[in-house]
Amino acid sequence: MSEARGVALRLEGVRKVFPPDFAVIEQIDLNIAAGEFVAILGPSGSGKSTLLRMIARLAEPSSGQILSEPISDQIAFVFQDAHLLPWRNVLDNAALPLELRGVPRAERLAKARVELKHVGLLDALERYPAELSGGMRMRVSLARALVTQPRLLLLDEPFAALDEITRFHLDVQLRQLWQRLGMTLIFVTHSISEAAFLANRAVVLSRRGGRVTLDRQIELPAERDNELRGDPRMGQEMRALLGAIEE
Asked: Containing H/E element for 152?
């Protein structure tokens, strides 16, 4: 992997309560190293997305704190829906964050082309979202997130609505992008196999109250391709994650 350019995070006693007194996140303490790839998983209602939104500064903890160096303009967020603008082509959608920052058109389009090349979409620059498959739309969304060269990339179940073969392909592509860029990456998923395949570390949240029930280093090779999915080591990691979720 390239030298880490990501950002370190520290979560201290983070709690989130919704009125009148519903604790989605009861208390979480986590240290995330710069350049780490962390998967957060757990059952529905365990607070995964709420936790990710707090890390993104899109929501505030009810108590506790999330500490890092100032990175407000170096965070990118990829949602489950690609949220592309239907009246803009692939190139202009990918360049949008730079346009909003006032980057000149020639420069922002050049940078967008680079990221679209990395996600394999150079042959689709002039196409519009309605002309793309679900997997292609998600790759545009990923390129759009990467165009600002974020130090922290947050993904909230981005591949959940895609077919399994497309997900497998995008999993490999995402891990390769992380290895190339060295950013800190936090990935929320329901999928045990996706968490084990993608991440270097998995954090499992409890069904109620969003407590950490397992914080595990994933002991798999750094270089991962789809053949790894049939490896006994992959099965061992999945069983450990499943056991924590079932508890």
From this structure: strand 152-156
Which string of DSSP letters, residue by residue, matches 95-149? HHHHHHTT--HHHHHHHHHHHHHHTT-GGGTT--GGGS-HHHHHHHHHHHHHTT-
The three-point CA angle 47-48-53 to 5° equals: 95
**Structural domains of the chain in order of their starting residue, each with its CATH number:** 9-74+150-246 (3.40.50.300), 85-149 (no CATH)
**126: exposed, middle or buried (C-beta count within 10 Å: 0-12, 13-18, 19+)?**
exposed
The span from the CA of 172 to the CA of 47, in Å, is 26
Are the C-beta atoms of 221 and 179 separated by less than 8 Å?
no
Quick one: tokens of 68? 């890092």
Over the chain (247 residues), what is each successive 10-residue block's mean pLDDT?
A: 73 90 88 95 86 90 88 84 92 95 94 92 94 91 92 91 87 91 93 94 87 93 91 94 87
For 58, other C-beta atoms within 10 Å of its C-beta total 12
Q: How many CA atoms are closer than 13 Å to the CA of 88, on its beta-carbon side?
A: 16
Q: Angle at CA 175, nearest 5°, toward 213 and 58?
A: 60
Q: What is the DSSP string of 171-189?
A: HHHHHHHHHHH--EEEEEE
Task: Please state whether the predicted TM-score (pTM) of the whole model is above 0.90.
Answer: yes
Of residues 129, 28, 25, 8, the one with CA closest to residue 74: 8
